[in-house]
Amino acid sequence: MNPRSLLALLVATTVVLAFVLAVILEAPATRSPAGTPTTGTGPSAAKNAHSSEFDGAPLPAARAHELTLTDQHGRRISLRQYRGQVTILTFLSSTCRPTCPLIAQQIRGALDELDHTVPVLIVSTNPAADTPASVHRFLGEATLIGRVEYLTGTRAELQSIWHAYDIAPAQLGDANSPHAASVLLIDRAGQKRDLFQVEQLTPEALAHDIRKLERDPARP
After folding, report:
1. Cβ within 8 Å of residue 38, ≥6 positions away
2. What residues contact 86, with CB distance under 8 A and at least 6 apart?
3. Which of 12, 37, 56, 72 could form a disulfide with 196 if both were Cys (CB 3.0 to 4.6 A apart)?
């Protein structure tokens, strides 16, 4: 090939490569199913993909059933008194193993992730076993003393609440049961918004969804 033909070929190749590069740079980033731009894989991409979603299971907004019970200090505590704050609600027993300690530790981890106080209500599923000493030991093991309200009452009081929240105490430790222990997030308007089953629950995910609900402009 003579020098003039070789030069023409090189010029043509350069033009084609420049055009292809321009097309690639102008193309929009692929989008996740939630509409969040992502340009790769790995932890940072996964974080971007979930930045506008709940990490737990979102629930149709519905008013949380009201409850008034007695905490570990003998005070009467109502859910309504936390209106205006995102609130963590779960149903545990101080003698349930191993699910209940695991959930308590994950909640404690989420509280450590946050830079402010978030109300946590634990409703007893075993009032006969949840004596003051047992509850104190349980909260101490999870490093939750002074950070949560552990609520109990008569069995009649509790049964109506268990029923309202679809809790079956006898199945609390069975991860395969639809009534197994879970963590519920209630928004500032007092509505159920987000549910974590045991297998979904991590401190990071729980803290993420709390922050999301706190930023929600549609709620007071």
Report:
1. 29, 30, 31, 32, 45, 48, 49
2. 118, 185, 186, 187, 188, 210, 213, 214
3. 56
Alpha helices in 125-202 (DSSP H): 132-141, 155-164
The separation between CA 74 and the C-alpha centre of its own chain, rounded to angstroms, equals 29
**Among residues 187, 186, 198, which one has the least CA distance to residue 101?**
198
pLDDT beneath 50: ranges in the chain:
3-11, 15-52
**Contact indicator for 123, 151 with CB cutoff of 8 Å:** yes
pLDDT at 181: 77
Could you tell me where the DSSP H helices lie in 50-154? 99-113, 132-141
- Separation in Å, CA 196 to CA 38, 58, 88, 181: 25, 9, 11, 9
pTM (global) more than 0.70: yes
Bond before 132 cis per omega within 30 degrees? no
* Topology at the third CATH level for domain 57-215: Glutaredoxin (3.40.30)
**Tokens (6 digits) for 142:** 């999870």
Q: Are 34 and 45 in contact (CB under 8 A)?
A: no
The domain ranges of the chain are 3-45, 57-215
Token pair in block for residue 79: 């859910």
